[in-house]
Specification:
With about 270 residues, the protein is an alpha+beta fold. Helix content is about 65%, strand content about 15%. It has nine helices and seven strands; from the N terminus they run ααααβααββαβββαβα. Helix 6 packs antiparallel against helix 7 (about 195-210) and helix 8 packs across helix 9 (about 265-274). The mean pLDDT is about 90.
């Protein structure tokens, strides 16, 4: 009886010790219940001491029926704590994965997997706060509507995916490519226009203009790029996006691959609108 009671308590003790790891891991997560899990971790440590004390007390003495019942309770208690902490850890892990997946979907375009407008805004604000030169580029695919009308939206989607992949493949690690909607993309890249912005615009134009294969057809598409440099063409996110957009329309109207914003572009735009 003594050996059985000791074995039961030892099993419960081992299970308590095994529950410490998942409990500690959960207690480190930035959740509202963090304090509660830390308290539980300390309680389990106290239980471990209690199990050790009871196990030491049972050594070299006869076991009463009551102590045998307590040994079974201790064993069951250890098993209960272990199962609860392990199941909680797995459940919380799945919830975190699902939350991260949903967050990623909310902030990334479903078709191209590029960041959406909100992440672009955040990145631009961070660049502006750092007060270091960077280029904001607005990209619009030429004759994209004709591809949709002639070959269907599936083909248009394939073109967008192909273009997004090509542009991403030539970007520096600290650059960002974003889809704003339709066939309109945006790029932010560190550095001045004269240092890297113009070269990057040329690289984008060359990459996008390469033929795209779709259902045994070879498609070619151009791109119009408008560029605004911080802080020369704008000191705020709104200004930079507006100036880059104006420059993009100037490039499209004048059959240019890219254009750096100039104030004369606005006068030209007003005349065309009139």
């Amino acid at each position: 009886m003594t050996s059985l009671a000791q074995a039961l308590i030892a099993i419960g003790l081992v299970l308590l010790l095994l529950s410490l790891k998942p409990t500690f891991a959960i207690s480190q997560l930035p959740t509202e219940q963090q304090k509660g899990w830390r308290i539980l971790f300390m309680l389990i440590c106290c239980f471990v001491l209690g199990y050790l004390s009871f196990l030491f007390m049972l050594m070299n003495q006869a076991i009463t029926p009551l102590e045998m019942v307590v040994a079974w309770v201790f064993c069951g208690g250890g098993a209960f704590v272990y199962l609860i902490t392990r199941m909680s850890q797995k459940t919380i892990h799945l919830l975190i994965i699902n939350a991260n997946t949903n967050l990623h979907r909310a902030h990334h375009d479903e078709l191209t997997l590029l960041p959406k407008r909100q992440l672009l805004y955040q990145a631009m604000d961070q660049h502006i706060q750092a007060n270091k030169p960077f280029c904001c580029m607005m990209l619009d695919l030429n004759d994209f509507k004709q591809i949709n009308d002639r070959l269907g939206h599936d083909c248009g989607d394939w073109v967008l995916i192909s273009v997004a992949k090509r542009i991403q493949s030539i970007m520096p690690k600290d650059a960002m490519v974003s889809r704003l909607g339709g066939d309109e993309l945006a790029v932010i890249i560190n550095g001045r226009y004269s240092e890297c912005g113009e070269d990057m615009a040329k690289d984008i134009q060359l990459s996008v203009s390469q033929a795209i294969s779709y259902n045994e057809e070879s498609l070619t598409i151009g791109v119009s790029i408008g560029i605004a440099e911080f802080p020369l063409q704008g000191q705020t996110r709104e200004q930079l996006l507006k100036q880059a957009d104006i420059a993009m329309y100037h490039a499209k109207r004048n059959k240019k691959a890219y254009a750096l914003y100039q104030q004369t572009f606005e006068v030209e735009l007003e005349k065309n609108d009139a």
